[in-house]
Amino acid sequence: MNMLNKDVRLVENVFSNALELAPTRDGFGNGVTEAGKNDKRVVVLCADLKESTRAEWFEKEFPDRYVEMGVAEQNMATVASGMASVGKIPFTASYAAFNPGRNYEQIRTTIALNNANVKVCGMHAGVSVGPDGATHQMLEDIGLMRMLPNMRVIAPCDSMEAKKAVIAASKVDGPVYLRFGRAKTPVLTTKDTPFEIGKANTFWESVDPVVSIITTGSLVHEALLAARALDAEGIGTIVLNLHTIKPLDTHALLSVAHRTGRVITLEEHQIAGGMGSAVAEFLSEKCPVTVTRLGMQDVFGESGEPNELIRHFGLDHVGVMDAVRACIRKR
Amino acid sequence: MALSDEQNKILEEKAQAIRKTIIEMLVEAKSGHTAGPLGLADIFSALYFHILKHDPKLPEWNDRDRLVLSNGHTVPVRYSAMAHAGYFSLEECKTLRKLGSRLQGHPERARLLGLETTSGPLGEGLSQAAGMAYALRMDGGKQRVYCVMSDGEQQEGNIWEAVMFAGKYKLSGLTAIMDRNNIQIDGMTEDVMPLESLREKYEAFNWHVLEVSGHDIPAFISAVDQAKTIYEKPTLIIAHTIPGKGVPEIEFDYRWHGKPPTKEEGKRFLAEIRTLKGKVPNEYA
Question: ipTM of this predicted complex?
């Protein structure tokens, strides 16, 4: 039985093999261009990666509001802070390994502590970067960013949600970190799927759920595949799309944790410091339940094809199903 | 426009008052930096009482010039100048570095309007000032952006990214002021990590460079005025200063970079302050 939440208006054929595929960075390109149309204060700064970050989509529309920074991410963050202080809404775009990897302290001091209206955009996050290997597969950015006071952290699940997240980020005052992937992944949400910063959406709910799968970013689709297969085995789950890692939707977390008593988190990030950590920290204080964190188990990534790597590190639907079965057995 | 003798005298008196308050604040705070703020007092007198277009009653006034202090550890000089200019009371200066104070050990914009940014970690102010100058120009603004930075922080890579950026985009609205006092925490800059030749380095990045004494107020103001006439480049003013200037017994002594005077030393320093017609041993020998 199909237990997709109808209220979130996912695409009709969400389990089809023929789903449209697009990288979430496309959502950045579309979203920031749209945000630029809505608000002329929006400017985009990019560190020599305008094609692969899709910053050039914005440049085509608004050449005067696009700023080429060269390969200088520390300067990009601090110039953006200066621009924000005189009224602009800067989006900084580079690979997450460098933005916020390279320029962390600049972001900490001049964006987070200043509460500057800068949107830090990290592309090529996660192992699904693929063949480029470990140096370019950023796996610590959620942790870096969610530790900073004033910072909001969002990892959209597909290009459609990414577009909405970028537009929403342009409308809130203050710093936001947005995380995007390189690989083409299924587009499962529609323009009618609700998106609100800080409000998680239940995408799947079995009749009698015993495990909650809390996930973020491009692995949401894998979680849905697992949920459907598990349901067929008679194991009910809830799949929660936690697109906003900070501020946490504590209401949604408490609700699913109370109902199922078991939680699995799934993300393309180190299990230390990431979304799973955030969930575990919160639940351990407010609703102690069994939490199993799926993600990178304190290892770096390596070269390979995106799907191959997701499978290799146990982050695909098969890995999720194994983890769900294991956590049921534990009880 | 040349400064009249009377104007110059007023600015020197302000510098004297700024120095006095710096010493009082540091004695009270029992921690903080002494040499840098004293060395910058003449420049901050010129900035707050002659150069900057600003209104202490309206710190967020959009048309104000922007002053970014990159070497945030010298912030006592800025707090002192702001207090004397009327941003807040001299009494509040005594809260420096104390719990709940707006006057944090390193400046924090969110706590005190008028600071423009948060600084302390070195090498970040020039980029922010460049971002301000770039964005203000986008909107056709006439505001000028000043960035006071140290010489030691020229060792940070971020500085040179900013220098490259401002040169490429010809940010003529940006004037950087380098406090060239040749000291840093571990010793003399040229021993720790040589910076020279600074002029040639900046010029190579398409900057206009001027050099003045940071204690010659008319010369400094004249350099700032000259910067306004350079339309195709940002300007760097290398202001040669004496660390600890104004208190003879600590002048030139790098050991005073990062410590405050004790109460007794403070009393002695206050008695010794000599901005007015002050001469330094071997300065004019």
Answer: 0.93
